[in-house]
């Protein structure tokens, strides 16, 4: 009993021991405080970046998914929080005297072994994360996908996951594309497509009269519900240019902003209406 009491008294009287314990305790508290503050600062930076991106999308009328943005915000914040606390945890282990080198080495060997077997999977997941983070495309978008300038697929996005993307082509084929192979993306659905038609029309009287006839067709189109359903926002079809006049033939270009993927529908209706009015004066078929 006396032996135990002596040991306890010795510990209580060991000033160096208490100083070391106090130092380690203060270091641990400091690490926790720094980690907590660091997480809050990083969260503020992430909020600023995501808010700036969303505001820019709204300003330039670029389509984006608010729910996806919220999900990404939570995902990025969680990843940052766990990374910071993981580093802080290992620092605390080192302070209390636990050898973290062996733990890291063991984890490293396991990671290398797993990495060799699943490097393509990891690449796909990382690529998928950045596709979603950057908002390159979303479900329902019309896209064309390349890998190092080599064409892969074109069509409508059916699903977008962390590992792969599913696309349906115009012919109905379904493509399952690993995200790691997606190198370049053309997205036709972010804002609008231009509907462009060129018509070579014979000038019967004057160029001014021809312009008035063309404007009458455009006025009809711009007030027609069928056209309006395909036009982007409140845009209108307009006579963009008279490209050239040759052998009494005026080559006129009609341009308008169409909703994503609807430019061909507007062009088809324009060709029909121009043919009905100018069928005896068109030089062959329009060149668009």
Automatic annotation (TrEMBL):
Gene Ontology CC entries for this record: plasma membrane
Keyword flag Transmembrane: yes
Presence of keyword Ribonucleoprotein: no
Location within or outside the cell: Cell membrane
Membrane topology (UniProt): Multi-pass membrane protein
Highest taxon above the source species: Bacteria
Gene Ontology molecular function, alphabetical: mechanosensitive monoatomic ion channel activity
Alphabetized UniProt keyword annotations: Cell membrane, Membrane, Transmembrane, Transmembrane helix
Recorded family membership: Belongs to the MscS (TC 1.A.23) family.
The name this protein goes by in its record: Mechanosensitive ion channel
């Amino acid at each position: 009993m006396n032996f135990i009491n002596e040991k306890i008294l010795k510990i209580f009287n060991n000033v160096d021991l208490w100083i070391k314990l106090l130092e380690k305790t203060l270091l641990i508290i400091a690490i926790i405080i720094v980690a907590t503050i660091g997480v809050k600062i990083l969260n503020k930076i992430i909020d600023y970046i995501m808010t700036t991106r969303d505001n820019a999308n709204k300003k330039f009328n670029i389509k984006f998914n608010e729910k996806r943005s919220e999900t990404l915000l939570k995902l990025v914040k969680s990843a940052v929080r766990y990374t910071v606390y993981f580093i802080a945890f290992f620092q605390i282990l080192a302070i209390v005297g636990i050898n973290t080198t062996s733990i890291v080495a063991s984890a490293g060997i396991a990671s290398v072994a797993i990495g060799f077997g699943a490097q393509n999977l990891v690449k796909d997941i990382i690529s998928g994360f950045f596709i979603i983070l950057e908002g390159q495309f979303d479900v329902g978008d019309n896209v064309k996908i390349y890998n190092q300038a080599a064409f892969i697929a074109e069509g409508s996005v059916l699903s977008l996951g962390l590992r792969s993307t599913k696309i349906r082509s115009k012919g109905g084929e379904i493509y399952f594309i690993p995200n790691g192979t997606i190198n370049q993306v053309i997205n036709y659905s972010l804002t609008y497509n231009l509907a462009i038609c060129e018509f070579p029309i014979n000038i019967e009287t004057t160029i001014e009269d021809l312009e008035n006839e063309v404007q009458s067709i455009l006025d009809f189109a711009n007030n027609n519900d069928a056209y309006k359903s395909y036009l982007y926002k409140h845009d209108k079809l307009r006579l963009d240019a008279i490209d050239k006049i040759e052998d009494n033939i005026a080559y006129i270009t009609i341009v308008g902003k169409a909703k994503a993927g609807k430019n061909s529908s507007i062009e088809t209706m324009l060709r029909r209406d121009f043919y009905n009015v100018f069928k005896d004066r068109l030089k062959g078929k329009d060149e668009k």
